[in-house]
Structures are given as structure tokens and as C-alpha cells.
Hints:
Chain A has 4 helices and no strands. By secondary structure, chain A is mostly helical. Chain A has a single domain (4-104), classed as Orthogonal Bundle (Helix Hairpins). In chain A, helix 3 runs antiparallel to helix 4 (67-96). Chain B has a single domain (12-101, 152-217), classed as Up-down Bundle (Four Helix Bundle (Hemerythrin (Met), subunit A)), CATH 1.20.120. Chain B contains 9 helices and no strands.
Amino acid sequence: MIGAASALNGNISGEWYLALAAVLFAIGAFGLLIRRNVLVMFMCVELMLNAANLTFVTFANMLHDIGGQVLVFFVLVVAAAEVVVGLGIVVAIFRRRANATADDFHLMKG
Amino acid sequence: MAAVMHGVLLAATATGHASLVDWGTFVVAAAIVLSGAIGVVVARNPVHSALMLVMTLFGIAVLFVLQRDDFLAAVQVIVYAGAIVVLFLFVIMFLGVDRDENIATEPLRGQRPLAVALVALGVTGLLLLGEVSKWTTGALSVAGSTDSSTSNVAQLGTSVYTTYLFPFEVTSALLVIAVVGAVALARRPPAVVTAPEPDDGLVDESAPAAADAHQEVTP
């Protein structure tokens, strides 16, 4: 009873992709919480964004809807902008204090 | 007649050997994605983290191809692995922070068990929620269909330049703002700039050749 629709959809059902994306997002969130290096924290944010991208593509595939793929396109642009501004901030902070760990950013501590 | 033959052919490939190939590809790509992600988190050296990130991004691109999403797979490799990770590596090398970091110590007591508990709770809840209810509901092909009669690039381009034209324009504004912001952030502090020549912020005080050239031009 495997119809043409499931063949067009790919043979693996979307639940597997979504579960994988959930685990990837969890690893990214865990890394963001425990790491101290700001650059590694940015990379963990990229992991979470990629998990969201995988989810969008999977939903686009499950619903036969191009909108999910267009949204991934926009997420790529936003991720690029985020990395550019974030790394600019890291460079600006690094110029004042020669370290790039999140523990050093206590300028506004009372 | 041709459409019927096409459907039969697709159904035939879906039953037997192709399914096994798809599963094998999925399992290998998922293993690459997860091991790369774990490598990003546990690597002591930021350079190793960046390289592990490339591995994860490549695995995601393979999963895109597996879902017949060819264009975004190519963009994923070019933009993410090609541009963003290179930007990361550039900043790591520029700042000279490519030293090993001691991640065995725990500066904030109880942070890691709490992080493990919170993340495990979140992902378990998410998976349980998906298991007891439907993953997707609603109408099919609302924004546009993804049939295999036209190419993926054509569908995506048509959708971006018709339905999503305004968001597309807004993202260009976002990119311009990001570039201007990055330039403003990465400039030298004004105290250093105004010391040698107040009227010209571009002349670097550590470049005598440029200063000589400047003096030659001025008279």
C-alpha cells in the first residue's frame, strides 16, 4: 500500500527527522548553558538554528508546502547577520579586556 | 499514461532496495550530525569546535538532500560551512584565543546537573508531546506546492519573488544594518584614532609607510 505520495515524500517518515532535530537542539542548548567561551557559545547557537532549519525542511516535506523551505532561506540570512554582529561585539570586548569568556563580562555588576 | 507509469515506477522504488539505501543514508547522516554536535560542546580548543561544527552542517546538508531539498543543501554548504565557519575561524585566529580551555572545572556550582536536567526535561516533553498527538495538522500546500514536476530551485525562486517578496526585501535591509553595525563595532576606539591625526581616522599609527605616503601627498 505504499502510494506515490509517500514515495514523493521520501521513504523515511518525518518523525525521525523531527526527533533528530529535537536532540540536536538539546545538545546546542546544553552547550550554550555550560560553556564559558563566547565563540563556542555562538557555535552552540548555530547548532540550535540548524535544528530549527531541519525542522522547517521536514515540515515543508510533510505538508508539501514550499513555505518551510523559504523560511529556511530567511533563517540563513538572519544567522549570517547574527554572527557578523555577534563577532563584532566579541572583537570590541576583546580589545578592552584580553579574554573571551563569559565570566569576564561583569561590567554592569552592582 | 506517462503519469501512471511514473507513479508505478515511484511505488516500485519505494518498496524494495531504495528504502534500505535511504535508511542507511539517514542513519549515517544522523550519526555525523550528533557526533559533530557533541564534539562542538566538549572540544577544549575553539578551533576543534569550529571544525566539528562543519561536520554537523555537512550532515544537515545530507539530510536536506535526502528530503529532495537540493538548493538549500547547496546553500547550507556554501553559506554555513563556507562563510560562517570561516568567519568563526578568522575571529579565533585574529583574537588568538586558540588555546586549550580547562572545561573540567565547574565555576558555577551545580550548573551542569541543572543544565542536564532542564534540557533532558525539555526534550523528553517535546518527544512525548509529538508521540501522543500529531506532528503536523492543517491543510497541505498552503504557500505553494512542492511537486516534483518542476525543479526545487524554480519553486523556491517563484515563491521568494512572489509570495515572500516583502520579507525578502526586509532581509536585505537587515543585512545592510548588520554590516554597518559590524563596522561600527569593530572600529578602533576614538581615543586611539584621534591621537596622531584628528582629521583622518583611517591612518594607522603603527604603519609608518602609510604616514610617509600621506606626507608626500600633502605638500
